[in-house]
Amino acid sequence: MPENRPLLDTMLAMTETSVANAGLSDRDLMLVRFAALAAMGAPPASYLLNLAAGAEAGLTLEDAQSVLIAVSPIVGTPRALAAAGSVAEALGIAIELAEYGNA
C-alpha cells in the first residue's frame, strides 16, 4: 500500500520537471540551485536535501564558497552568512547520519 505523502510527491514531481526542462548540465544546475537556496534564506534541511545531488554533480565546498561570494552583493551579507551557517549545519547532519548508518 503506497504511503500518503502528497507534499513530498509534489515536490519530487516539480524537481523532476525542472531538471528535465532546465537544459543545464548537472553541475550548473546544482550551482544555480545552491545560489537560489542562499537567495531565499533556505534552512539547513534544504541544503541537506541537495548535498547528495551536488556531490554527485562534482560540487565541492570551494564551489559552494564561490557561489556565496558571487551572490553576496545581490543577496546581502546577512543572507550569505546565514547560507554558510546552514551549509555547515547540513554537513554536520550528513556526517552524523553517515556515522549512525555505519554504527
Which stretches of 5+ consecutive residues score pLDDT under 50?
Answer: none
Number of strands: 0
Number of helices: 5
Classification by helices and strands: mainly alpha
Taken in chain order, the helices and strands follow as: HHHHH
Beta-strand fraction estimate: under 5%
CA gyration radius, whole angstroms: 15 Å
Which bin fits the share of residues in helices? over 70%
Notes on the structure:
The chain is mainly α. It has one domain. Helix content is 83%, strand content 0%. The chain contains five helices and no strands. It starts with 5 loop residues before the first helix and ends with a helix.
Short description:
With 103 residues, the protein is mainly alpha-helical. The protein has one domain (23-102).
What descriptive keywords fit this protein?
mainly alpha, 5 helices, single chain, 103 residues, 83% helix
SSE order and pairing:
Layout: H1 6-22, H2 26-40, H3 44-56, H4 61-75, H5 77-102
